[in-house]
Amino acid sequence: MVEYDPHIIEKKWQENWEKSKIFEVKEDLTKKNLKYYVLEMYPYPSSELHMGHLRNYSIGDAFARYKRMCGFNVLYPMGYDSFGLPAENAAIDHGVDPRKWTNSNINAIQQQQKRIGLSYDWTRMIYSHDPNYFKWDQWFFLKMFEKGLAYRENSYVNWCPDCVTVLANEQVQGGKCWRCNTDVEQKFLTQWFLKIRVYAEELLEGLNIVDWPEKVKLMQSNWIGKSEGSIIKFPIEGEERTIDIFTTRADTLFGATFMVFAPEHPWIREWVENTNYFKEFEQFYAEVVKQNKFERTDLDIEKKGMFIGKYAINPINNEKLPIYIGNFVIYEYGAGAVMAVPAHDQRDFEFAKEYNIPIKIVIQPYDYILNPEKMTRAYVSDGILFNSGEFNGMENRNAINAITEKLEQLEMGFATINYKLRDWLISRQRYWGCPIPIIYCESCGTVPVAYEDLPVKLPKDVKFTGKGNPLKTSKIYANVNCPKCNKPAKRETDTMDTFIDSSWYFFRYCDPESKDLPYRKNLVDYWGNVDQYIGGIEHAVMHLLYARFFTKVARDLNLHSLDEPFQRLLTQGMINKAHAYCPMCEAFAMKADMHNKECKRCGTKYILKSVKMSKSLGNTVDPISIMDNYGADAARFFILFGASPKSGLEWSDEGVDFAFKFIKKFFTLICEPVDKIRKERNIRDILIEYYLNRTIKSVTESLDKIAIRDSINEIIQFISELNKYKLEGVNKKIFEICKEKIVLLLHPITPHISEEIWETLGNQGFLSLAPWPSYNENVLTVENDYKWKLLNNTMDSVNNILHIIKITDIKELSIIVAEDWKYNLVSDLLELVEIMEDHKQIIKEVMKNDYYKKNSKFISQIVGNLLKNRGKYVRSPLTADEEYLFFTEIKSLFEKKYLCTINILYERDSHEKKAIQALPGRPAIILK
RNA sequence: GCGGGAAUUGCCAAGUCUGGUUAAAGGCGCUGGACUUAGAAUCCAGUCUCAUAGGAGUUCGGGAGUUCAAAUCUCCCUUCCCGCACCA
């Protein structure tokens, strides 16, 4: 007997696969509809594989293998998002070369990935810091610059003091840096932006054509933040210019009683200079800029403001509106100013109360009258217009359009659409990223690097001090000659956001060696778009939005014909593990305290609570050590069986144990010879064949939905049945078929052991390339299904009775099949119940049949039960004789199991009182 | 505040769309038994309550309803998780 040794088997097959290059794919333009692109999100090459990776790749690989077996030409590549801060921080902290550091990490992670047995086409491997790759980042940038999609602007931007660089809006989450969780500050800087806003509408529309989780679509749609409203022009008293503000509530225009500007608005300083307000303004301004944008917009923060002595004019009624500045108005949003309607907006209401500004009601509720003196909060619901001139009496919803139209006539406003989405800030003040290919010349201005001079490479003569952008320390990098006039000029020293790298990498995989263009159109049009994308939810609005934007820009550059990059998206869940938790402090124990029994602070006993695996808590499990102990197949099996891909996975050591045992058991089942082999084919063979086909069907259906856990569940149950079947003695041919099919079914989950068994079974060629099993619909009959259940139910019943009567030693088991007339009865009753509901009426009807009369008591009982629960009664597909025959066929199973004499009888041949209980599909059972 | 998701028998978790075959799959854990010197492994049985004949009772966060029939449909409530947040 061969022992299952995962290490030998796994190494063997990983080498065989590599040697035979079986996962390397070529586009096959004749099989356009049979291509399938499976992709996991571009990973950052940290040196150590963690559980999240293992999960991500196991899901992707299982699915890719499944699709390959189904006959698809599967593109399944891997590469590394290798630019980014960790390398640079390592350079700062330990003086290592970021390039070397990153390369060695890639090497390390790749070795670890290979141990999992992933079926990647490694010939397509790419990485971001490869000049042949980032050259095309720069190429894209220049194309966008030409089209006016890349521009440079001064503005307040998000600054992470820990990462020492600016961040895009998407990368600030709850006021903190998405990477390091540091509070983000505001800085006024000149930076490069990409005009993602141009595509706002299309980015929103495109969500309708992708198969993504609703949650992710919703998050993107909220982020894009489309709102329909109006631009209203408020003239400034004593000036020509107007302040053009956006509002969704044009219906409340008559209720505006003041305006609020952001303190940073440039007009404010003009207005207050040389006035009495100046001193107070300076003070206020200084205070406000100290707060960051997130503090300012925090709901709990006090709304502060001041009047600045200036007025705007309400264009609809020419009323004078005092202009205030307020900390809660953000300069970058809209016009940096708002019209304030205290009666119908809570924020404005509070501000007006604070500064004694009049409150004017312009919408009255349907069922009562508002009194401005007594209002304690703003009325924000719908109602009828009031105090609004010619619009009085109108429903406020309709008034939005009516008032906007009026403004259009007055040329003081128009309907418009506003998006919350901001342009993408891509400048980063860091070294380890893709250089922005721009040169600043005193006479020629902003000059793009020529295409033939790409790539602009990173210089090596830099110092990593941890202060300022290292690129500025290079003597050769920044000082260049202007490409236009050849005079000395300065190179842009910022690099690009690394999210640029991941915005088009999935196209590069289709043509990783492309020389003249980022990728060739026919190849991307063949492979694209990604059919199944798998990754974490954390990129719902960062990478996934940027990549969609790039896809549309590239399409408009005629690089491909695709509108959306990722057709189907799976966001995998987190991996959690129980960890010490203090219910009093509502906090998890830190790494150092995790082995204590009680909370250090309050002395409360720790309880165990599930939490995301993290290094800081110290509840991580190293996937490599799991693979060392149990092998990659067991690790994969556990991680795929532990939870459905999209839900959180609770790590448990017992779970891995189970996976390992299961695989060993499976190995034994297939490889150990059978004791008893039959030539003839009996009912047991028919049933196992039925169950096999049922299993193939449901596993296939589950895998199509990437319900991998469900498919494994089905496999486990089948293998348990197959084990029983093997012990009972098998029909050789049927057993061979079962073994072959189950190995095929298990292959996407545990590829190594299944390849090994496939070979042991004497098959030629790789299981990895074998066709997915089909199932025989003809075997999946109602009759077989019924028999399968009848067998199992009967055995359950016997067990049940045994359990109750507590007899350990039975001598005789009688299975008594119901009389023929009972089969007719159930079928008659089921018909009757359709047309009448009354117990008496039904009995009366049934008793018309003389034969039934003899058994009136029994029938009355049955009718009662049946009326109580119709669904429990089904018309049997078998006749009494067929059922009798079935039991005689499976008689030996009962003999083996209960080791006693088995009698199969018809009801009429039994003298037992209980025989009357026999029903179709539910024989009477008597134990002695 | 707005929006989304969830709550199932010790734990994890199916089932909910399409009501009935559901006291509710499967796994873990636990209990008993077989095997064994013992343990491990393996196998069998049990695991809501009661029950010496397959029964009965009470269950799927709580409450109300629809139905012959509800974990599943409708309404209300509670709790938890997540996203956005003075969005003009």
In the CATH hierarchy, the third-tier topology of the largest domain is known as Isoleucyl-tRNA Synthetase, domain 2
What's the overall average pLDDT, rounded?
Answer: 90
* Strands ordered across the widest β-sheet: 2-1-24-25
Main sheet? 4 strands, parallel
Question: What is the class of the largest domain in the CATH system?
Answer: Alpha Beta
Shape: globular
Individual helix count: 29
Layout of secondary structure:
Blueprint: H1 6-20, E1 35-40, H2 51-69, E2 73-75, H3 85-94, H4 98-115, H5 131-146, E3 150-160, E4 165-167, E5 172-173, E6 176-177, E7 185-194, H6 200-205, H7 214-224, E8 226-235, E9 242-247, E10 258-261, H8 266-272, H9 278-290, H10 293-296, E11 305-313, E12 320-326, E13 337-340, H11 346-355, E14 363-364, E15 384-385, H12 396-409, E16 413-419, E17 424-425, E18 427-428, E19 438-441, E20 445-448, E21 479-481, E22 488-491, E23 495-496, H13 505-508, H14 521-527, E24 530-536, H15 543-556, E25 566-572, E26 575-582, E27 587-588, E28 607-612, H16 623-630, H17 632-641, E29 649-650, H18 653-671, E30 677-678, H19 683-704, H20 708-728, E31 730-731, H21 732-746, H22 751-760, H23 782-805, E32 812-817, H24 820-835, H25 839-846, H26 850-853, H27 856-868, H28 880-889, H29 891-898, E33 901-906, E34 924-927
Parallel strand pairs: 1-2, 1-24, 10-12, 24-25, 26-29, 30-31, 32-33
Antiparallel strand pairs: 3-4, 3-7, 5-6, 7-17, 8-9, 8-16, 10-13, 11-12, 14-15, 18-23, 19-20, 19-22, 21-22, 26-27, 26-28, 32-34
Helix pairs in contact: 1-22, 2-17, 3-4, 16-17, 17-18, 19-20, 19-21, 19-23, 20-21, 21-22, 24-27
The chain binds one RNA strand of 88 nucleotides through helix 7, strand 9, strand 13, helix 11 and strand 29.
